[in-house]
Amino acid sequence: MSHHHEHHTTQLDGVAFWENHYGQSERIWSGKVNQVIEELVAPLDAGTSLDIGCGEGGDVLWLAANGWKATGVDISPTAVKRAAEEAAKLGLDAEQARFIASDLAAWNTGETFDLVTLSFFQAPFEFPRADFLRKAATLVAPGGHLLALSHASLPSFAGKPDHPMPAFPSPEEELADLELGPEQWEVLCAEIRERSIMAPDGDPATLEDSVVFVQRIA
Questions:
Q1: What 3-state DSSP class applies to 24?
Q2: What positions does the domain Methyltransferase occupy (predicted)?
């Protein structure tokens, strides 16, 4: 089987998986910005931002509301449509919040961005995560930042998953995958952070996030 064909299949699986994921309910996520993003990004000067795997757009909308010219890309047309509807409801125009439905592998832009974020860019099937991380890094403008957030473990309330889960990347592994040249990049933060959340049954629970925050210095 040719490599190209294999890739194509995975791509379709990706769309089908996420469309199914978003199609199951009206809204999957809270629509609120991730608190790590809020903490790390709030001190930065607003510029242009790109959220890869933006889902229903919570982070993009928060960035736009805070003065960023924010773009979100997601493989799921349903998620992107919801994000755009939400932006319209908030009175944000396409200059402030722009959403694109595309597979990142197929998406090429001449632009670079002052901030590129990938949050929980993980799925229960194999996909070339390291390639996406490296592609994300190429989209960062000089002086700009890249923020990669991942689940570092299953939530404390989760039972044993019924399908094999991909390995949870550690901050060190994320950095190794990124292959950043130390002359070009400064690592501002590479750590596992715990945050408190509400479990589905209403009990307090904890989540561990792997946080990698780097700045392109050249």
A1: coil
A2: 50-144
Residue 201 pLDDT class (50, 70, 90 cuts): confident
Question: What pTM, to 2 d.p., does this model score?
Answer: 0.79
Name the token pair of 134: 């490296």
- As a whole number of Å, the CA-based R_g of the chain is 17
Backbone dihedral angles phi then psi of residue 16, each to the nearest 5 degrees: -60, -45
* DSSP element (H, E) containing 207: strand 204-216
Task: Give the DSSP H or E segment for 11.
Answer: helix 3-23
Give residue-wise pLDDT tens across range 53-87.
Answer: 888 898 999 999 999 999 999 988 988 999 999 99
Tell me how far apart the alpha carbons of residues 61 and 164 are, in angstroms, rounded to a whole number.
33
Terminal Cα distance for the chain, rounded: 41
Cα 52 to Cα 80: distance, rounded to the nearest angstrom: 12
Predicted confidence at residue 208, as pLDDT, reads 84
* Pairing, β 204-216 against β 185-198: antiparallel
Give the alpha-carbon dihedral of 162, 163, 165, 166, to 10 degrees: 180
